[in-house]
Amino acid sequence: MTMIQKLAKPFGLELLAQLQQGGSSPTPQTLNKIISSCATSTSLDLGIRLHAVVIKLGFCSNIYICSALVDMYGKCGSLANAQKQFDEMSDRNVVTWNSLISGYLQAELPKRAIGLFLELLKVGVVPTPFSLSGALVGCSQLEAEELGAQVHGLSLKTGLCYNVVVGTGLIDMYSKCCGVNDSRRVFNQMPERNVITWTSMVTGYAQNGQSDEAMILAREMLRLAQTFGIIAGKFIAG
């Protein structure tokens, strides 16, 4: 059991005990927070018991709690329950969609994740950087460069192409689809890069047999880190 699990379980179990003793009911905000802690700690048993509390208290129509349940089931690897919760929701927001997409990606089911992303677009939900990043991870897992290029086009259309999360996803996708030159083009155009961005580009070169370029970029990353330091985990593009 991890330290997070050790900290999360007593809090949730205390709530359950309070409910069983007829104590005051928790607020939706409190329930949402505890369900999210179950997701972080992958405490599926406790999450299922909290889901029962949600039903008992009549919070089944609360979009935030239900989205947290989708996320919890996905992170705990219970995709059938995540999908069931998603399907039963009469109202969903983009966080709900992103949570289920993330769950499928974590389970290495990229086709399901991509299908869900396309459905998100079809019903008119406006994608966030995390929606696009999730789609790009799916394209990377499938090595589907053509589809990834279409997601790149969508990022340009929505103005999210220079977002650090989306940009890093594009670098990783193109690298894994043997388009490392396209990865470098995206890298060069990014106004802001974080450590993951730099690492993705270095790794992309290495995976595509360009070890010299990987070493040059790694040295440049270290030089910038030593010269300017890292502020909040970010490098400013130089």
From TrEMBL:
InterPro entries the UniProt entry points to: PPR_At4g14850-like_plant, PPR_rpt, TPR-like_helical_dom_sf
Key words of the record: Repeat
UniProt repeat feature PPR, residue ranges: 93-127, 194-224
Keyword Repeat appears in the UniProt entry: yes
The protein's name: Pentatricopeptide repeat-containing protein At2g33680-like
The species this protein was found in: Prunus mume
Gene name linked to the record: LOC107881551
